[in-house]
Design brief:
By secondary structure, the chain is α/β, with parallel strands linked by helices. The protein has helices spanning 11-39, 46-56, 68-92, 139-154, 157-161, 171-174, 180-188, 198-210, 214-231, 234-246, and strands at residues 96-104, 110-120, 123-133, 162-167, 193-196. The termini are far apart. It comes from Mytilus edulis (Blue mussel).
Length: 261
Amino acid sequence: MATSIPPSESTAEKTLLMMKKAAFNKLTLLFRNAHYIGKNNRPYTDYISLCALDKAKDLDIGDTYMTDKSCQMFIHAISSARQNEQDDIIKNSSFISVISDGSTDVSSKEAEIIYVRCSVKCRVSTLFIGVKNVAKADGNNISIAISTLLTERFQQSWKDKLIAMGTDGASVMLGKSSGVVKRISDMTSKPVHAIHCSAHRIELAYKDAIKMVKIWQRCDALMLNIYLFYKYSPLNRSNLQASFKSLDQKMLTPTRVGGTP
């Protein structure tokens, strides 16, 4: 009698499918918690609290994979899947352009942030590729950091597809003889079009136009002093927070008007 029942309709097969579905639902909740941790830059230990909250809400997440090590494993799997999606997009695109800008990490070390912009079937995508530390923010080190990161992700294929680079317009990036774009162009053995960021270009034009205006100089100095007054003094920030609290308002910390925050 058992041999006449199709495998897909057998009790054992249905039980196995139900078990797989239950495990899938549990892992879905756990992966969502891990994704929240990674996207919001939270410590891995917060993942345990999120899982405890799910249990308090009577969500079935099981009793395994509830450690910070599991969270790290899930985030690694999510990032690998996202990288595979990006690799497919780059593989199917006919050309790419690179967008890069300087930054500093939490230890105040120089780093270069790299994006890739491409188009597949008229659908434009801007993909975050990664951050690479540089020993010194000069043309040689920045170009090596960009090329190394792109080669690690896409091997040598990026050199055949690269047609342009978008930068902030600094001389270290757009210098004709030793700028980053020139060095990258030499690596690819073909012309690479340099694009000066329009926002930075407008900023430079605006500053050049009003640099001799006295009222702007005073206003700029005032805003900078207010920013520095709270930035380098925990006591002043604490007093500012107390003032907002007494007014029953959300605290707003002065930010830098110009330059790098």
